Amino acid sequence: MKKMFLLLIFIISFFGESLGQNAEKYFQKGFAKQNLKDYQGAIKEYDKAIKSNMNNVEAYRNRGLVKNLQYNYSGAILDFTKAIDLNPNLYDVYAERAFSKNMLNDTEGSISDLNKAIEINPQYKEGYFARGGLKYFIGNFQDANKDFEKAIQLDSNYADAYYLRGNVEVQQGDYRSAVADISKGIELNPNNEETEAFNNRGYAKFMMENDSGAITDYNKAIELNPNIALIYLRRGLAKGNIGDNTGAIQDFTKVLELDPKDAWAYNNRGYDKYLLKDYHGALADLDSAINLNRKQSKMYVNRSNTKSMLEDYQGAIDDINQAIELNPKDEKNFCNRGLIKFRLKDYKGSVDDNTKAIELKPNYSRAFSSRGVAKYWLEDKDGACTDWLKASSLGFPEADEFIAKYCE
Question: What is the CATH class of 352-408?
Answer without folding.
Answer: mainly alpha
